[in-house]
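Action item from last meeting closed. Structure (98 res):
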């Protein structure tokens, strides 16, 4: 039996995907931060030490969360709009008992 997804809930899907994006960004942020801590601080043009910007540990996951949320809301809204004209994602289901 073939079925189509007629609607995606933009807010619910965006919450889930935004959190997944934020957690997924830590896979990149934490190793890069750890490697940066192994090296000494950089210096500016006057020879003063410049520390690694620690606010990036917070900024990147928050940016990933916000952008992931917004893009998912937009994607779900577009899907819901175009479903009326071109149909939806189709998948096939079969019973285990048959």
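Sequence:
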């Amino acid at each position: 039996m073939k079925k189509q997804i007629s609607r995606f809930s933009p807010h619910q899907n965006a919450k889930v995907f935004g959190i997944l994006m934020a957690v997924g960004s830590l896979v990149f942020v934490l190793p890069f931060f750890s490697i940066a801590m192994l090296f000494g601080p950089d210096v500016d043009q006057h020879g003063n030490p410049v520390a690694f910007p620690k606010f990036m540990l917070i900024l990147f996951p928050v940016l990933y969360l916000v952008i992931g949320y917004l893009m998912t809301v937009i994607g779900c809204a577009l899907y819901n709009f175009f479903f009326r004209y071109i149909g939806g994602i189709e998948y096939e289901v079969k019973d285990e008992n048959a």
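Note appended to the action item: DSSP finds two helices and four strands in the chain.
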